[in-house]
Amino acid sequence: MDGTYSQNDLTRVVEADKAHVWHHLIQHKPFESKDPNIIIEGKGMRVWNQAGKEHLDAVSGGVWTVNVGYGRERIARAVYDQLMRVNYFAGSAGSVPGALFSQRLIEKMPGMTRVYYCNSGSEANEKAFKMIRQIAHKRYGGKKHKILYRDRDYHGTTIACLSAGGQDERNAQYGPYTPGFVRVPHCLEYRKHEQDGAPSEHYGEWAADQIEQIILREGPDTVGGLCLEPVTAGGGVIVPPEGYWQKVQEICRKYDILLHIDEVVCGVGRTGTWFGYQHYGVQPDFVTMAKGVASGYAAIACCVTSERVFEMFKDDASDPMNYFRDISTFGGCTAGPAAALENLSIIEEEDLLGNTVAMGDYMLDQLRALQDRHAVIGDVRGKGLFLGAELVTDRQTRDPQPEARVQAVVADCMGQGVIIGATNRSVPGKNNTLCFSPALIATKDDIDHILSAVDGALTRVFG
Ligand SMILES: Cc1ncc(COP(=O)(O)O)c(C=O)c1O
Fold first, then answer.
1. Could you tell me the distance, in angstroms and rounded to a whole number, from the CA of residue 264 to the centre of ligand 1?
2. What distance in angstroms lies between residue 120's CA and the mean position of ligand 1's atoms?
3. C-alpha distances in Å from residue 257, one per residue of 215, 303, 343
4. Between the N and C ends of the chain, which has fewer C-beta atoms within 10 Å?
């Protein structure tokens, strides 16, 4: 920390925060007797709080966002230069960084052609939902309007996104929900013993078949879209089992269902490929992305579509209703694509995809070594620098550890100056997975440091 703030300044900041800021996803009662954490500076993999305490950040800004690390001067300069040139114009017009970033992005996404800009992951998902609904009205008299989503997946915070949300603790108390969203079963092999009829072999194909069963139950002529995370994030870091994605693609083609992949977490490098779906050879119709697109240096989200989808919105220009009648005010901010362009260049120039694969493999191995030493770790899984360790009370029964004990591990690490994550208030009774998503610049030393903190925390909490 460079000492830019005096202790007086920081005392005022804490008082203002406690008096007026409503923090995200947190109960505020404890702040009546203790101060909230205020992050005042970041550099590389590290952040400092108001007490000057250094933290190694193993979750890229708490929610898998700051993929290229903190303090990237070239992104800040690019944003500054762009803002001085022109900060904003509504998205009915184009912008220089918007055009250039769309081209660079599409180069990484064979088969996709169009980028619709907006400003959050939830909003990008809403765009895809609206497009699927509009296609249903234009082509199928409104009938093919249902959108399937998966148990344990999360797609955002708005009411429609919660309606497509497979995490009942996130959804609870915010109903009634939007009609027309239908849930399909999860594909977490470690918990297949809780799923009726799950086989001991070829689980991936079976899990995909469950989607087909739901389509047949609902009627294929009523189902317009399927929305899935490529690797489920907050629902427990679920890497899909072998055979799953190929079957999912076949099912979508068979029933003329548009495939929407939510890459809000996995997109732009997190799993070691540009996009998570690219591990599985599938061809989506929609890809939504947000967090890592500009690593949190500016707000930007994109709903990317194939040309086939785009064409459906311009095939009859004589019809005044026949285009996507949607706008996102802040989708016209130029800071987002300006930051995203630099972010992409950094990933390329520093070979951060290569680092993500190498460091992800290393971290997975180290987590497995930790699993050998701690019986509480029932399962370790992940892809690239996107990893989870599921904590259980008994390896035989796989009963989950209570959320409070999992949070005790997170708190112990925090006390040691290492920020890790855990699934929280997400799947009832299953908020038992520790989450790791360090920036794509992580080194072996960083990973050793993170896992040594976890090792100590597990020993203190579980013995
Ligand atoms: C997979 C996924 N989709 C969508 C979202 C929503 O993104 P946002 O918070 O930017 O609206 C999130 C947020 O965590 C997410 O994890």
1. 6
2. 7
3. 10, 18, 33
4. C
